[in-house]
Amino acid sequence: MAGLNVSLCFFFATFALCQAARRVSKALLPAGAYASFAREAMRMLVELGPWAGGFGPDLLLTLLLLLFLVHGATFDGASANPAVSLQELLLAEASLLGTLLKLAAQGLGMQAACILTRLYWSWELNDLHVLQNLMAEHCSSALSTTVPHGTLVEGACAFFFHLTLLRFRNSLPIYRVPAVALLVTVMAYTAGPFTSAFFNPALAASVTFHCSGHTLLEYAQVYWLGPLTGMVLAVLLYHGHLPCLFQRNLFYSQKSKYRVPRGKPAPGPGDTQMPAEGCRGREPGRRGVGQQPRSSS
């Protein structure tokens, strides 16, 4: 119990330290450098927290829910996920240079998080950390199913994750943040026994790519190809096209904002045109309403 309390204190202390670093970076750095680099690196430092703490499954899911709730409300739109950054590029919402800076920040932030995690394990605050420290170089793979099945699982998780992001992107944070956090927690509970439900290429590469059991190509197929394919399919399903690559809508017809009145077809040579109601001649012996009869002279 004491080791668990120390682990929780370390987790929340790391989160508080990253929040302080984020605020300092936002105050000192230019807006472009902060948006493209600093905030992604800061979030990556705490993204690894639940997986590095050595917690049980129940506590891990609880911390994961709290992590996404707090991050969604405080991290100024930072994703800490290369697939989300590439999604913004496909939607033509980010430049190529800005996307490359984000990817670099996510990679560096994840490496820094791994260094801090190994340092944290070396302190051996509880028995589980002792085992993790001993097995750091000989860890077991997080992929506990076949490669095709793992690719399908990671792709499906990424598909629903990105589809939810697209659906709630313009919603108020009070609706968007809990929806995303709850979805991530449910998918971690459902798909966790098969692939650990990363659907984050940077996080998966840091946590499990160096572990034995599968080749680098197999890991890349499951944890890179699967999530990126799910992201592209989510964008295609939601928008019908990839704005950065082509504008033609493959799934949905484009309806004009203005209604064009339909013109009447021109009469053919054999058609007889009926006279208009107001110009129709009156039958003999009938008079209009209110018309007085003519007096005979």
Overview of the structural elements:
The chain is mostly helical. It has helices at residues 2-28, 31-47, 49-52, 57-74, 82-90, 96-122, 127-134, 147-167, 173-195, 201-207, 216-239. It has one domain: Glycerol uptake facilitator protein (Up-down Bundle). Helix 5 (82-90) packs antiparallel against helix 6. The protein is globular. Residues 1-8, 34-38, 49-53 and 273-290 have low confidence and may be disordered.
Task: Based on the model shown, name its key terms.
297 residues, mainly alpha, Glycerol uptake facilitator protein, globular, transmembrane, transmembrane helix
What order do the helices and strands come in, and which of them pair?
Elements: H1 2-28, H2 31-47, H3 49-52, H4 57-74, H5 82-90, H6 96-122, H7 127-134, H8 147-167, H9 173-195, H10 201-207, H11 216-239
Helix pairs in contact: 1-2, 2-6, 4-9, 5-6, 5-11, 6-7, 6-10, 8-9, 8-11
Membrane topology: Multi-pass membrane protein
Region (Disordered): 259-297
Signal peptide: 1-20
Task: Report low-confidence residues grouped into runs of 5 or more.
Answer: 1-8, 34-38, 49-53, 273-290
Global outline: globular
Secondary structure class reads mainly alpha
* Overall average pLDDT: 74
Q: Which fold does the CATH topology refer to?
A: Glycerol uptake facilitator protein
| CATH architectural label | Up-down Bundle
Could you write a compact summary of the structure shown?
By secondary structure, the chain is mainly α. It contains eleven helices and no strands.
